[in-house]
Every structure is written in C-alpha cells, then in structure tokens.
Specification:
By secondary structure, the chain is an all-alpha fold. It is built from eleven helices and no strands. α6 packs antiparallel against α10 and α9 runs antiparallel to α10 (170-203).
Amino acid sequence: MSQPTSREIQRDRLLEAALVHVPFDGWSRRALFAGAADLGLEPGSARRLFPRAGDDMLVHVERWADRQMLARVGPLEGMRVRDRIAKLVRTRLEVLGPHREAMRRATAARLLPSNGFAACGSLWRTVDLMWAAAGDDARDASYYTKRSLLAAVWTSTFLFWLEDRSEDFQDTWSFLERRIDNVMQIGRLRARFDDMFEGLGRLNPLAQRR
C-alpha cells in the first residue's frame, strides 16, 4: 500500500477530529466543521478537504482504517493463512474500537442509496488489502471467491461487534473464529466439487473431444 500523501494526512487528522462529534451530529457537515474547529481550521479548509462533507468522510474513514490496520497488524510470517486473516480482521476492528458509536451511525448512513455504491467499493478494497497482506497474490478464479467469502466474514463480524457487550469483545473474537471455520468448510467442499467435475471430464469422451 502506497504512503499517504500530504493531503491524505490532512484528511486523516480532520477525520479523526470529526469522529468525536459524529455520535452526536451524524456523518454531517456539522460534525466536519466541529472537528475543524477543534484543530483550528477554517470551515473553508474543511470543505476543500471533504467537499461532500459526510459522504466523503464515510469513504475516507474506510481508507483510514485500512491504513491503520496495516500499520498495526504486526508480522504475519509463520502464521497459518486463516490466522493471518483473523488477525487482520481483529486489528481493523480494534482500530475502530474507540469510534464504535460513529461506526454504528455509519452503518445506517451507508443504507442510503447515494452511499451504497461507494460502500461496496470500500468493502471490496478492504478485503482485497487483507488478502494481499495475508500473502495471497492469486489472479485466477479463486481471487474473487476468496474475497467474496472474506467480505461475508468481515461484514457479519463487524455487525456482531457493533452490538457486543462482552468483556474485551471476547464474544466477537469467538464469533470470528466460527465464521472463518465456516468459510474453510465451504472452501474444502468447493475443492472437492472441482476435483470431482475434473475427474468426470476425464472419463467423459465427449468432454475430451471438446
């Protein structure tokens, strides 16, 4: 992942300041300007960094969380792939931990038609970064399968985490492990079906002549 530009760093600082106000003011221009005031920035500077106010902040918070995840996750070498993925998901949730109420409001805001497309793009970008960080560089058909399955794991775990009241989010980490177990079972079943159909193709003379 490339290093953030000076503009991205400015946007990060303003976003972090605005996140304190989002639980009260939502993903709005009001929250944006309140964060700018905390930093001593003029409203015009805030508008230049986030022209669409809350909509732009919703997109940027995902990019910010992705960078924070990669910076904090630590070494992954020597770990099983499933453990690498679990650590990445957990680290990203820990990044968002201080802002859980803001993320709860973000979930509601993303249901608006105007934010749906951007939300899908941000989700795909996140799971692609997770797989890349886990060491996956495949570009075959499994590329899309892996990312689609991880998108389901991330989304369900994130929604569970939003409502988790257990100590240190232990229930969330257990839920995450179960979801990864489910995905591993799906992956094994898919591999068996692929092998089975490949074997049938070798036995079928019509398939061999195609």
